[in-house]
Amino acid sequence: MVSEQVLSKTKALIKDHKVFVASKSYCPYCSQTKKLLESLNANAFVVELDTEPDGSDIQAALLELTGQRTVPNVFINGEHVGGNSDLQALNSEGKLKTLLKN
């Protein structure tokens, strides 16, 4: 069970940033996600869960909110996009740039 404080913090991270990425510094899929977003000049707010004191709690909150425990966990405009493969698919379909513009 995730504390209300961590749940509120996680919701605020999602709401307060146009692009929010929950990542882990050693994760190759996270690196691909961050590189793609950088290439599109998306000003992503990234939290490296493995370097944050409450990173495992934030990851548990994300699981509760989205059903996804894996990283990267990507949100655009407050909406859950999914992981790296979801983001790459949106890019291949030409939909990612539109999401980032809105």
TrEMBL record:
It catalyses: RX + glutathione = an S-substituted glutathione + a halide anion + H(+); 2 glutathione + H2O2 = glutathione disulfide + 2 H2O; 1-chloro-2,4-dinitrobenzene + glutathione = 2,4-dinitrophenyl-S-glutathione + chloride + H(+). Residues 19-81 form the Glutaredoxin domain. Keywords: Disulfide bond, Electron transport, Redox-active center, Transport. GO terms for cellular component: cytoplasm; nucleus. GO terms for biological process: cellular response to oxidative stress. One of its GO terms (molecular function) is glutathione peroxidase activity. Pfam families: Glutaredoxin (PF00462). PROSITE patterns: GLUTAREDOXIN_1 (PS00195), GLUTAREDOXIN_2 (PS51354). It comes from the Eukaryota. Gene3D superfamilies: Glutaredoxin (3.40.30.10). InterPro entries: GLR_AS, Glutaredoxin, Glutaredoxin_euk/vir, Glutaredoxin_subgr, Thioredoxin-like_sf. Signal peptide: none annotated. This is Cytoplasmic glutaredoxin. It comes from Komagataella phaffii (strain ATCC 76273 / CBS 7435 / CECT 11047 / NRRL Y-11430 / Wegner 21-1) (Yeast). The lineage of its organism: Eukaryota, Fungi, Dikarya, Ascomycota, Saccharomycotina. The gene is GRX2.
